[in-house]
Each structure stands twice: as C-alpha cells, then as structure tokens.
C-alpha cells in the first residue's frame, strides 16, 4: 500500500471515531460523512478523498493535533520567534506558580553577579543574574540562575536573553536553617555588553 493511502486510512479511522461521537451533536456536515463513505466504497479516488481532507483541514473543520507543534524545539527558533512566544512574567509569580512557567520562554535583562563553570556540563556555565535594580543589602531579591552554553561573559556584564524556564531552584541559606528559592532557566539567545 502506498504511504499516502495508509495515512488516509488512519485519518479516516480517526474521523470515523470522531463522527460517531460528534454526529449525534450535529457538528459534522452530512457531505463529510458521504465523502468518507464514497471513498471507503471505492466510488471516489484516493486523490479526491485526500483533496477533501485537505479542504477540511484548511477550513478548520478538521483539526489534526500535532505533537511537533506542542513540543517545539526552542533550539531551532529564531530570535523573532523567541520574542513572539515569550510570555510576560513577574519574578514572584515564577516562584508562586512554577508549574505554569516551566517550559515557557521569557525575556530577561540583568547584571551578572557570578559565573560558575561546571566540568559535568561541558561548555555550559551557570550565571547568577540580578533581573532588577537592587539596593545594596537586598541582594537576594530578583536573582535568577541561567544556564548558558558559552564563556565569553564577564562579571557585571549586562545581559539580554530569552530563556526557557526550567523551574525553581532551592538553595540552602547561609545559616543553614532555611532555604531560598530562585528561578532557573536555560538561555536560548543571549547578548551582553562585552560579547
């Protein structure tokens, strides 16, 4: 069997299931059911049936979920695409609603306070970045950790980056009695003052 026919059969089988559920509600036009029936009975050709399916998809009558769309590889996105997909965020919102932000793209700007190289992650460095202007003595607020795949950054560089939020990192306080929580993400595009 041709691959196109196999795909069409799979789609028709899926449509058949959807038709049996939705037909009772009157959501599927009669001509769609007739077209599928004609194709199954051999009254119309494969190409005619595929053309009908393409029309349904184009008009939004038939929506085929795509895992590729749901799991976009952010490594492949351009800066414009990263900007278009970036969500608004607030530092404390990330801490409060970690599950919502995980996997989301956010735009970050700030000043590097620490660069930590780690041999376990070849070529990647962990940046500590202040994402807001802070007053001396309040240095724990608005600190974000960012994984970055380069080392051309300097302490106190100002960065602009699109990052994918990985979660919230729990760090033991200096006194060891409690924990402090910081957002952590992975840079997908990063520029800096001294790059």
Any overview of this molecule?
Helix 2 (30-40) packs antiparallel against helix 3 (46-58). The chain has a five-stranded mixed β-barrel. It has seven helices and five strands. The N and C termini lie far apart (56 Å). By secondary structure, it is of the alpha+beta class. The protein has helices at residues 3-22, 30-40, 46-58, 67-70, 79-85, 91-96, 98-101, and strands at 105-117, 125-130, 143-148, 158-172, 179-192. The chain has two domains: 3-64, no CATH class; 74-192, OB fold (Dihydrolipoamide Acetyltransferase, E2P) (Beta Barrel), CATH 2.40.50.140. The chain is 33% helix and 28% strand.
Keyword list:
alpha+beta, OB fold (Dihydrolipoamide Acetyltransferase, E2P), five-stranded mixed beta barrel, 5 strands
Strand order of the largest sheet: 1-2-3-5-4
DSSP helix count? 7
* CATH A-level architecture of the largest domain: Beta Barrel
CATH class of the largest domain: Mainly Beta
Q: Biggest sheet: strands, sense, closure? A: 5 strands, mixed, barrel
User: Nearest-angstrom radius of gyration?
Assistant: 26 Å
Query: What's the CATH H-level homologous superfamily of the largest domain?
Result: Nucleic acid-binding proteins
As a percent range, the share of helical residues equals 25-40%
Output mean pLDDT. 74
The total count of strands amounts to 5
Summarize the structure.
The protein is of the alpha+beta class. It has helices at residues 3-22, 30-40, 46-58, 67-70, 79-85, 91-96, 98-101; strands at residues 105-117, 125-130, 143-148, 158-172, 179-192.
């Amino acid at each position: 069997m041709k691959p196109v026919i196999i795909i069409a059969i799979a789609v028709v089988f899926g449509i058949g299931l959807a038709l049996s559920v939705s037909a009772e509600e009157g959501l599927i036009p009669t001509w769609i059911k007739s077209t599928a029936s004609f194709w199954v009975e051999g009254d119309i050709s494969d190409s005619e049936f595929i053309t009908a399916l393409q029309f349904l998809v184009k008009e939004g009558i038939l929506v085929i979920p795509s895992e590729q769309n749901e799991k976009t590889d952010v490594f492949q996105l351009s800066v414009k695409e990263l900007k278009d997909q970036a969500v608004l965020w607030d530092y404390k919102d990330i801490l409060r609603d970690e599950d919502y932000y995980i996997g989301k793209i956010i735009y970050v700007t700030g000043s590097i306070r620490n660069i930590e190289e780690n041999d376990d992650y070849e070529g990647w460095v962990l940046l500590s970045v202040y994402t807001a202007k802070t007053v001396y003595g309040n240095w724990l607020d608005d600190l974000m950790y960012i994984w970055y795949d380069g080392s051309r950054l300097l302490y106190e560089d100002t960065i602009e980056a699109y990052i994918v939020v990985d979660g919230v990192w729990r760090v033991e306080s200096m006194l060891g009695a409690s924990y402090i929580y910081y957002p952590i993400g992975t840079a997908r595009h990063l520029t800096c003052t001294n790059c």
